[in-house]
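A quick word before the example. In earlier lectures we treated sequence and structure as two separate objects. From today on, think of them as two lines of the same record. Here is Patatin written that way.
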Amino acid sequence: MELSNITLEIFSKLEQKWLSHCEVKKTRILSIDGGGTKGFIAGAALIHLEDQIQARTGDPHSRISDFFDFFAGTGIGAVFAAMLTADDGNGRPLFTARDAVRYLTEKHSEMFTIKHVGILRRRKRFSGKNIDKVLKEALRRDDGKVLTLKDTCKPLLVPCYDLNSFAPFVFSRADASESPSFDFELWKVCRATSATPSLFKPFPLTSVDGKTSCLAIDGGLVMNNPTAAAVTHVLHNKRDFPSVNGVEDLLVLSLGNGQLSSPSRRQLQRNGECSTPSVVDIVFDGVSETVDQMLGNAFCWNRTDYLRIQANGFITERVEPALDEVLRERGVESLPFSGKRLMTETNGQRIESFVQRLVASGKSSLPPSPCKETAVSLLANGR
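And the structure line, produced from the sequence above:
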């Protein structure tokens, strides 16, 4: 029996609809490096990322958290990640990208107030009380509730180094939702991962139930680029990401925060001498670049699913680049097993192409934060 054209058209549309529902959406990860105290590079990329999302969707209320399933950050990157995922009580983030960058820029001098220590007061450190106050103000709701790891719109991962166990300690919403013994106040998590030994004293913190303690220093010493930790976490967290079986199911955006400053590079190239700050720079850069190289190898068969934005032309702590300068710089890509190559596209253009894919695949479909699920359940049961 011959089918009519109308029947064929109906079956064709039904088939397309069925195929679209069967297509597995990639899980999307946003990872933000530590490095410096201002995060110029990551801040510029985040603003452009959210601006492009709003332009593509035509919705000025769209946020980065609407299109990513998982966030990770170290140091200043963790502060950005926390601010972009902190739940305002209605499932929406407390900060836009632009507001987060503006807030940290305006509060920078207050957060990093120098105090002199030692018998002759020659050593300089930053005041812990000041940065504590700023982070606590940022990561609490208008009703005064101090947020914890469970109070985030999307899963969050933040590393530090624990001097009690002399091992990395990773904070995550997944662990926090399993037990209050792994749920920590969000501002303390950011403070822990930012406790650079040369700038701050080690930061002690305990879980909300007081059963787990940590004496934290900067997570950047071991995990300045947390992208590999984020990918590993998602691959093994079957409760939140049951459809992820390998890197082919992931779409990853990794934001750097600049590299070893030019004066340090010139000194090393000229006479091979390393000052203590130069050694710290090498540790941070070495960790970040090694992770980038590893992920470049892991995604070598699906290269467009991994994007690394890193600026190479700016001294992030001494020269404040303008937003458009960061975005105009040509991108650099790690080649599998063989160094890097300079690309023809700028960082801004690469972010725009990435956003096109994000918006085309639709908003994140992850469930709300565990705290919100509990609240909804209680209301449904009439409690």
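Notice the following. The first strand starts at residue 27 and ends at 32. We will return to this example when we discuss secondary structure assignment.
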